Amino acid sequence: MTIDLFVSCVMDQFYPETAKNVVKLLSAAEVDVEYNPEQTCCGRFAFTSGFVEEAKELGEKFLRDFPNDRPIVGVSASCVGYIKTRFKELFHNTASHHEYLRLVANIYELTDFLVNKIKVKNFGAEFNHKVVYQDTCCSLRELGLKDEGRQLLSNVKGLEILEMKHPEFCCGFGSGFFSIQHEAISVAMAERKIKDAMSVGAEYIVTNDVSCLMQLDSCIKKQKFDIQVVHIADVLAQRI
Predict the structure, then answer these.
(1) Which of 35, 154, 191, 219 has the most CB atoms around it within 10 Å of its CB?
(2) Burial profile 171-198: b = 16 or more Cβ within 10 angstroms, e = fewer
(3) What pTM value is reported for the model?
(4) Buried residues in 199-230 as b, exposed as e (16+ CB within 10 A)
(5) pLDDT along the chain (240 residues), means of 10
């Protein structure tokens, strides 16, 4: 199987090593990875900030950047969720109608693709730590994903999965601009999430969304909390 890899702009700019680990995972699963270096932002930040026309321009470019009728694997749940739920508002009954339908039907979040599409759950990884898995807002509410990440982590040698008291609570990143416009609320939400994880003895918070990763990581470093946050791809790629 050949797939097109969609690397979000946040991962591209701040977590490029994680993107490389995604390629390692897919290659280990005997998936051929194609990457279009011309790809940029999907338009989520523009759309959620009210700049609909700008979001549409970025969306049209996204459609052009992924013209192939084959699976597209995205590394950030929030971007994939935005595309699946919001592209209809931008392109329904437009000249791009059929293209958007094709793309939306073909795009998968990474854990969804691994568990539900190609049914590969064990990469021989080893990670000797206690972790909690963060149920991101977009995974739950836009993609309907709950157990996929946990299924993948359950096959990691030495890893112990703990459960937060409120795993479904938002980390405070929101649409991105929420964390800027409502900084105090955003920070309080991040601290609540981190303290919830620490209260059950977790050493790591594992997430499938780089936006959440960046939000939590910045709060952890600023407040000097004794815990770390990591993308699930970085855990699964151990020893590959």
Answers:
(1) 219
(2) bbbbbbebbeeeeeebbebbbebbebbb
(3) 0.94
(4) eeebbbbbbbbbbbbbbbbebbeeeebebbbb
(5) 95 94 97 96 92 96 96 95 96 96 97 98 97 94 94 98 94 74 88 97 96 93 96 93
